[in-house]
Design goal:
This protein has 65 residues and is an all-alpha fold. The chain has 2 helices and no strands.
């Protein structure tokens, strides 16, 4: 195949992908402006583990040196 033809095909695919993404972004923006998209969740996040008490516990948390 000709190098220019391959380059044109790749450029066309990239252009098509960018147009599709622009349409999706515009659609999402209009939904956000219309408050049709909920941001976040209705349930509060729960903490399953406990955090360490700072840098003092760090050597035991990673196995030490």
């Amino acid at each position: 195949m000709n190098k220019n033809l391959i380059f044109a095909i790749i450029l066309g695919v990239l252009l098509l992908v960018s147009v599709v993404q622009a349409v999706q972004l515009t659609s999402l923006k209009s939904k956000i402006d219309a408050n049709a998209v909920k941001i976040g969740s209705s349930k509060p996040a729960t903490q399953t583990g406990t955090a360490g008490s700072g840098l003092n516990d760090l050597p035991t948390m990673v196995g030490g040196c």
